[in-house]
Amino acid sequence: MSTFHFQTVFGVNWIESDHIEIKPKRPTSISNTEVGFLSEILQNTTDLTNVVLDFKYCKAITNAGFAQIKDALEYLANLKKLNLNFTECEKMSDASIESLMEAVMKKNGLEELHLMLEGCMNISSVGLYAVINGLKHLPKLSVLEVTLSGISDPLMENLAQSISVFGKLRSLTLRFGAQHTKHGSLSDKGIKLLAQALESVQDLTNFSLDIYRGDWRVSDEGVIRLRDAIQKLSKLTSLRLNLRGLETITQAGIGHLNEALVKLLNLQKLHLNFKSGNEASTIQLKVPLSVLTGLKHLHLDFSWGVSDSTISELKKAFLQLIELNYLYINFSGCKDLTDVGATTLKEILSSLPKLSSLHLEFPWCYHLTDEGLGQLAMGVSKIADLQSLILNFERGGKDDDTLTDEGALAIINSIENKNSLKVLNLNFSSCVTLTNGVLLRTGEVLTKVPNLNNLTLDFRLCEHIQDSGINSLRHALEVHKSVTTILLNFMWCDQISDESIDAILKLKKIRQFQQLLVAFKKNEVQAEESGCQIF
User: Fold this and answer.
1) Taking the model in full, what pTM does it have?
2) DSSP-derived secondary structure for 208-235
3) Could you say which DSSP state residue 506 is in?
4) Which 3-state string (H, E, C) describes 264-294?
């Protein structure tokens, strides 16, 4: 099989001469036969040390196809880093993963392994045991990332044993997806076993733990044991705890986890996501941020549970974070967040001198009005070196008129002449009162953001947008040579014509884009017929 035929099936990205990324161009339809092309390429590239094989969403591959992936891996004798993504490969079986792990175990010089198996619902505990036991044969691992569809106490016991053999481990990422009863359940016993394993890898600089919704039976007792182990990881610079699936832990349990942070004075990156609700969010705000003065990256999820008063507490915590350059906060569905809270957020943004990336989520925050957006806009305008801005103001539809052109225009005007801005993502979906003037002004402002290279705009269900607004946007993109990635969503914007959308798509004939996607019309069928793509 020629290289040409291989590249009709796979996208190939050579990062360096010994580093390759391979991904099917049509993952949902790739066949077992086409997977076989992989061996014919890799057998001639045996010097590779870093390989990424991304088979995410390859739902048609069966045991025969996975056997061919295993055969391809056999050619890679010099591997140091391996990334295997089989997310949502629905036909992957126990036999498939056992076979693949046989090939992986032979790479005893492997230093970095990423293995994603979330959504592989045909893998039983037998297959998961094969994965976990296989890790014990890779003692040189310094980086390990594993995503599984479930975990149980017996599986966790084996995983803990595997972790304990990694004397050089520096980065550990564990994700346990939607739990299924066929795997058993995770209780305090399993969490305690994980905590015990963490105590054997004291040189960790990165630890990430995600536990999603499932049959979890973890109480505050297990959380306390996890806290004790985490606070001993004094070399941690990055910590992610996403325990949203542990609905059985209480406020006190979350508070215990926060206590561990006081000991982690080297943290530069922190991601916290616990269960939703007012009480849980209030506990999260007790994170000792004032002690973590070296933080550069902060991700907090307060969805469905923050009020103005808790934002005020957040402000006090931010005063010492002068090194922070990335901030993400999710306020989704916070019905008690008002313009007062937005004013406090403005003050927080003004107190972060090194902030360069800002991502704030406000969908369904129905008490946030134009005045609040105006306050946020003032905060954005004061960020001197803003490079990435992502704001989501999605609303609920026809009965919501709390956001008008005044608020949207304030946000859009805040980025005018932002020479440092490279990434812009604005979501005004279902803000049904917005008029065509918002898009007209957006086009004008974009011409004054000279270094923008990634643009996403979502105006779904904004029924007052017209062709003149689309034309203003098209003109901006026509003259804006730096923008290479464009994602536009105008679904259910019924006053827009096919002709104006076609004019945007024709920009591909003028210059090259990495990505130009437009969603349009009332449903996916109509959008595809009009030559647009759905994202």
Assistant:
1) 0.90
2) EEEE-SSSEE--HHHHHHHHHHHTT-TT
3) T
4) CCCCCEEEEECCCCHHHHHHHCCCCCCCCCC
What is the Cα–Cα distance from 409 to 434, expressed in whole angstroms?
10
CA separation for the pair 301, 436 (Å, rounded): 33
Mean per-residue pLDDT pooled into runs of 10, the chain (535 residues): 68 91 93 89 86 96 95 93 96 96 94 95 92 94 93 93 93 82 76 95 96 80 94 96 82 83 92 64 62 92 78 84 95 90 96 97 93 98 97 81 92 97 97 94 96 96 93 91 93 92 88 87 41 38
What does each C-alpha distance from 343 to 307, 337, 411, 481 come to in angstroms? 13, 11, 14, 36
Question: CA-CA distance, 342 to 312, in Å (whole number)?
Answer: 10
d(C-alpha 136, C-alpha 169), whole Å: 13
Cβ atoms 449, 416 nearer than 8 A: yes
Rounded to an integer, what distance in angstroms lies between the CA atom of residue 175 and that of residue 209?
6
Q: Which DSSP letter does residue 137 get?
A: T
Question: Who contacts 142 (Cβ-Cβ below 8 Å, separation ≥6)?
Answer: 111, 112, 166, 168, 169, 170, 171
- CA distances from residue 282 to 235, 267, 513 in whole angstroms, order as listed: 28, 22, 44
- What whole-number distance in Å separates Cα of residue 26 and Cα of residue 31? 10
Q: Which residue type does 196 have?
A: Q
Residues written for the chain:
535
CB distance 269 to 297 below 8 Å: yes
Residue 226, amino acid = L
CA distance 311 to 303: 13
Phi, then psi, of 469 in degrees rounded to 5: -65, -45
